[in-house]
Design brief:
- The structure holds three protein chains of three kinds.
- By secondary structure, chain A is mostly helical.
- Chain A is 73% helix and 2% strand.
- Chain A folds into two domains: 297 residues, no CATH class; 254 residues, no CATH class.
- Chain A has 25 helices and four strands.
- In chain A, strands 1-2 form a two-stranded antiparallel sheet. Chain A has a two-stranded antiparallel ribbon with strand order 3-4.
- In chain A, a hairpin with a 5-residue loop joins β3 and β4.
- Chain B is an alpha/beta fold.
- Chain B has a single domain, classed as Rossmann fold.
- In chain B, β1, α1 and β2 form a beta-alpha-beta unit.
- Chain B is globular, with a radius of gyration of 16 Å.
- The longest helix of chain C has 31 residues.
- Chain C has one domain.
- Chain C is mostly helical.
- The chains are: A mainly alpha, B alpha/beta, C mainly alpha.
């Protein structure tokens, strides 16, 4: 187990050390090399961890010194938040930080008499999956960042912070996330929790523009609110259960309902569930690697991870059905919001929130199948969404727009990026990619609860709408094939190609992943003694993932082959424009108008007024808030 | 005799009004009515050249619409057949001497069937389309169709139009 | 009663379904003609049409069109086979939906205004009917002892139509949309002229159009089989029911004018969805 411990140390502390090297002010190739090294080391450690972890003893003990250190680091972190509260002149942040400080002090005083507990790390399958996502996807995003930030540096506003600080925060973020995922001690959990909040604050505010500052401010306000809920939950739980270990606390069942509710609230702010979604939407102003990181492997996934951890304890409590409804509600409302958006990053953001809602919903339903669905979505969403954000970032850097309507004809201008983006979009909605399998399992798991079911059904229809619009726009091409080679940094292109391949690979290996990981996690969480019906459902999922899935893949390959083999350039004819075609190569449909002047007809996709952002949020946010309030309401009934 | 049904069993028609006085058009649309019922021969009136086998043209060709006619013709997949419906489409009719008129459809694209009449009677039109279907069958099986005229008699260019217009003005 | 999963059934299903669909389509055209006092084309006219299209020159705008046409057909065949072999109903729906989606994307990938408008409208239609289809599958699940398998209705003790009358009505509306019948034929139409010409299929021609036609025949066979499931034993009642439903579609097609996209969307997400939800919630209530 010696190797396992050093790997974990490498995963948590390694990024911090590499990050600190950034602060020495290294420049140019040296900086790139250090970032690349940090990324590769983290990937290596993350991939190696499962091989060196025993299946029988998932816990790793840590010296008592670390627990004690936690007592001192927590106030330090909160003081940092307080300092930020002062520097951005935000009263809510200051007040919430002060309350947290108070809670922290009270906790210390009350815990004085008790003996120091051993802090341990939980290295079970779920944690390892998360570590893999964080270290592999997160590091790849950092590698992409090398190429992206070099370009970004040139046209970034003068207010932007240095790239060294950027990479320091970006890389340390990975270490903090790994820590958050692995640690069992609640004090450390809230340290890491606040740590990720701080990181996201610095990353969102990187460009230093008014917009970036406002977004960073919103992000920290909402997340400190979540952090406050977390601290309060930790304080109450430790007080009630007499232990600081999360795994011990979670066994206490009905005793810790209020802390559970508070934890849930914290996860909802972190994973930007309605009505807390605004911070994640604001985070788009940051450079692309940041959005990719926040949306896929870190930050929001911390919320999803914690709610999945809580899921078994939530079962049977009055909280569970409300969480399921809140998640499903977020899913349908944000899907509707995504329909009305033409800003590519906003569509991605809403889709992220929708999928996180789905995970929360699965955690609320809490059957083994639902749990498996939640884990499936967690895994596949991380990979696909990281890919899509990086693609949109690359496209934006090249064409200077993130508007979906400007993305027509990209297939010839940026062949690789567009193809990879198409894979990413297909993987979000198309059989047999993992996301659809997850959604399918989620709907099958939701049949017990008609309200949740109907929300999921409506949401999944809307999901198709916005992806189809985008995919349709991005595949639109003119008739003459003139491919150009992209002038994009090799760092970015290789990462795109790598993750693109990864998306296909993990979907092809879905059978293996399901049998070896997802099913195992689900059964381990709920115990083998769950009713046999549940296991048979899990097996029936397995039976689909076998040969029928390969048939679907074969079909897609066949169709692609048809496109390659059956196409002859001589067969190209102009589109039907009532005979008045003009063969110009631009985005629009050009025809001869009055006096033979070229006239363009522009045709945008449907962004129906029914799905306008302001309209939907005006009733969506209050309703979501009401659902969350009822979460606490039921505790007092 | 082959098992595969003949190619002429479903001639799909696209109707192009070139410069017509609408007499032939109305008669052609009358063919769709229950009295004449084009569909019993498998003839479908599709709205666009990409789906069509038979291009039915009514009216004479002028400088303005020649290239449109050519464009629509080009957008039809092979094998394809052109039926010139009525006198105007066949020769230019009473408009043949107009300053802007090029003449019949065959000035721009190869015509396979000419249907006379001003306007042509629906019976004649149905007969014309069915004759066209036979040509279609012949073209599909590689035989020489009734009319072989692949070379354009006149290539229309947009530049022509103003020149012709000026000439017309000087006449007046 | 179950359908054996043998290579023979597989081949039979793949071969027979398009002819069956073509026959249904031919009968539809014939009935329409007779209703209008015309003679109408031969019953096998759709077959002639398709074979003719297959033998025409393939012309197209870009490579993606071919890919999407084949995806449409292959996924439709796959959905049909999943239905025949009684696989998981939700996965069947997803495969079926993706097939339609491939058609939509095929219409979108070309720079043609008519085609794009048709595609946009088709997605609106998909969003409008997709929840209803899923709710119908949930209804199947509730009635068939909590089994998502499509083979379950075949061995059901009593016909599902008795438990799912409202869902059946909702399904008829979906059927009208899927068959591109008035008043829902805004994306593409069987009839000659409409404001967007042939809409979604306009830029396909020759063999590629034939592929779409064949896929549509499979789709018709698939929808026909879905109706049969509502009264699976004795199966002849199911067949009668399905035939009657298709006849109804022809009548409706000839009796209605076209609606606008938002009207359809709102109609589906209010009236029809309510109808379907009422049935599903009643089932929950009964099962408790």
């Amino acid at each position: 187990m010696q190797i396992q411990e050093s790997l974990i140390a490498l995963l948590v502390l390694g990024p911090l050390v590499f990050g600190l090297m950034m602060l020495t002010g290294i420049k140019g190739i040296l900086r790139n090399a250090v970032v690349a090294l940090a990324g590769l080391v983290t990937i290596g450690a993350g991939v190696a961890l499962p091989f060196y972890s025993g299946a029988t003893a998932p816990d790793v003990g840590l010296p008592a010194l670390i627990t004690t250190a936690g007592n001192w680091i927590e106030p330090l972190v909160i003081l940092t938040v307080l300092a930020i509260g002062f520097s951005i002149r935000s009263w809510p942040v200051r007040i919430m930080a002060l309350i947290q400080l108070g809670l922290c002090g009270a906790g210390l005083i009350m815990a004085r008499h008790e003996s120091v507990e051993e802090t341990k790390l939980v290295v079970d399958s779920l944690a390892m999956i998360m570590v893999l996502i964080v270290s592999v996807i997160g590091s790849l995003i950092a590698l992409y960042g090398i190429g992206y930030m070099n370009v970004h540096e040139h046209h970034a506003p003068p207010t932007a912070a240095s790239n060294n600080r950027f990479f320091f925060v970006l890389i340390s973020f990975l270490g903090l996330m790994n820590g958050l995922v692995l640690v069992d001690n609640m004090k450390w959990l809230s340290i890491f929790w606040e740590g990720t909040t701080l990181c996201s604050f610095f990353l969102i505010g990187h460009d230093g523009t008014t917009e970036a500052k406002a977004s960073a401010r919103r992000a920290i306000t909402i997340n400190v609110f979540g952090g406050l809920a977390m601290s309060l939950g930790v304080f109450l739980a430790a007080h009630t259960a007499g232990s600081e270990s999360l795994s011990v606390v979670l066994t206490k069942g009905p005793l810790i309902l209020l802390p559970l509710g508070l934890f849930t609230l914290a996860t909802m702010t972190k994973s930007a569930q309605l009505p807390f979604q605004s911070w994640l939407l604001g985070a788009m102003v940051a450079p692309t690697p940041v959005s990719a990181l926040l949306h896929s492997s870190t930050m929001v996934k911390a919320g999803s991870y914690l709610i999945l951890r809580l899921a078994p304890s939530l079962q049977g409590t009055p909280l569970a059905p409300i969480i399921a409804i809140a998640g499903a509600f977020t899913f349908v409302v944000t899907s509707a919001l995504a329909v009305g958006q033409s800003n590519g990053k906003k569509v991605l953001a809403y889709s992220t929130i929708a999928n996180l809602g789905l995970i929360a919903c699965c955690a609320g339903i809490g059957t083994p199948l639902a749990y498996a669905a939640g884990v499936t979505i967690l895994i596949y969403h991380a990979v696909s969404k990281a890919l899509l954000f990086l693609c949109v970032g690359t496209i934006e850097q090249t064409i200077g727009s993130r508007d979906i309507e400007d993305m027509g004809g990209l297939l010839f201008k940026m062949p690789l990026t567009t193809n990879v983006a198409m894979i990413g979009m297909a993987s979000m909605m198309m059989p047999p990619f993992g996301m659809l399998v997850g959604k399918w399992m989620a709907i099958e798991a939701a049949v017990r609860n008609p309200v949740v079911l109907i929300l999921l059904v409506l949401g999944s229809a809307l999901t198709i709408f916005f992806w189809a619009k985008w995919l349709g726009r991005i595949t639109t091409t003119s008739y003459h094939e003139t491919y150009t080679i992209e002038t994009v940094s090799p760092w970015m292109l290789s990462v795109l190609a790598l993750i693109g391949t990864g998306v296909v690979a993990i979907s092809v290996c879905a059978t293996l992943i399901y049998a070896k990981v997802i099913k195992v996690i689900s059964l381990a969480t709920f115990g083998m003694d769950t009713c046999p019906g549940n296991i048979s459902i899990l097996d029936s999922v397995h039976s689909f993932l076998g040969w029928p899935m390969y048939v679907v893949f074969g079909t897609i390959v066949l169709a692609l082959l048809a496109g390659v083999l059956l196409f002859k350039p001589s067969q190209i004819r102009l589109p039907f424009l009532c005979g008045e075609n003009l063969d110009l190569d631009d985005h629009s449909f050009t025809f001869r108008g009055i006096a033979d002047t070229p006239t363009s007809a522009a045709l945008t996709s449907y962004y129906l007024p029914l799905f306008e952002e302001s309209k939907i949020t005006s009733w969506g946010n209050p309703l979501a808030a009401l659902i969350i309030l009822s979460l606490f309401g039921v505790l007092f009934i | 005799m082959t098992v595969v049904p003949k190619f002429n069993k479903s001639p799909w028609v696209v109707h192009f009004n070139c410069n017509s006085c609408n007499g032939c058009d109305i008669e052609f649309l009358a063919c769709l009515t229950p009295l004449y019922d084009l569909e019993r021969f498998g003839i479908l009136h599709v709205g666009n050249p990409k789906h069509a086998d038979v291009l039915v043209v009514t009216g004479s060709v002028n400088h303005r619409n020649a290239r449109v006619l050519k464009n629509v013709y080009d957008q039809m997949p092979d094998p394809k057949v052109v039926v010139a419906m009525g006198v105007c489409a066949s020769t230019g009719g009473i408009f043949a001497d107009g300053y802007n008129v090029l003449g019949g459809v065959d000035k721009v694209i190869p015509v396979d069937v000419f249907v006379p009449g001003c306007p042509a009677r629906p019976e004649a039109m149905i007969d014309g389309v069915l004759k066209g279907a036979q040509v279609l069958q012949a073209k599909h099986s590689g035989k020489t169709p009734l009319a072989e005229k692949h070379v354009l008699t006149r290539t229309p260019t947009p530049v022509d139009a103003p020149a012709v217009l000026e000439k017309g003005a000087s006449h007046a | 009663m179950t359908i054996p999963t043998t290579p023979l059934t597989l081949v039979l299903a793949i071969l027979v379904a398009p002819f069956f669909g073509a026959l249904l389509s031919g009968i539809d055209r014939r009935i329409t003609a007779r209703a209008q006092g015309r003679m109408g084309p031969p019953i096998l006219q759709p077959v002639y049409d398709t074979i003719k299209l297959l033998r025409k020159e393939p012309i197209l705008l870009n490579r993606m069109q071919i890919v999407y046409a084949y995806l449409h057909l292959l996924f439709m065949i796959m959905a049909f086979l999943m239905l025949v072999f009684g696989k998981d109903s939700l996965m069947f729906l997803f495969v079926f939906a993706f097939s339609t989606l491939a058609l939509v994307l095929g219409g979108m990938c070309v720079r043609s205004p008519y085609s794009r408008i048709g595609s946009q409208r088709e997605i609106m239609l998909m969003v409008a009917y997709e929840p209803i289809l899923i709710l119908i599958m949930i209804g199947f699940y509730m009635v068939n002892n909590h089994s998502f398998l499509l083979s379950a209705p075949l061995s059901a003790a009593r016909p599902m139509l008795i438990s799912l009358p409202l869902l059946f009505v909702a399904f008829l509306v979906v059927l009208a949309i899927k068959l591109h019948k008035s008043p829902f034929d805004i994306a593409t139409s069987h009839h000659a002229h409409q404001e967007i010409v042939k809409g979604i299929t306009i830029e396909y021609s020759g063999p590629h159009l034939a592929i779409l036609e064949i896929a549509h025949f499979y789709e018709m066979a698939l929808l026909f089989c879905l109706i049969v499931l509502f009264w699976a034993s004795p199966i002849w009642i199911g067949l009668l029911l399905a035939s009657a439903s298709f006849f109804l579609m022809t009548v409706v097609d000839n009796a209605f004018a076209r609606l606008t996209k938002m009207w359809i969307f709102k109609f589906m997400w209010t009236s029809v969805l309510l109808l379907a939800m009422t049935n599903v919630i009643l089932l929950y209530w009964v099962s408790k």
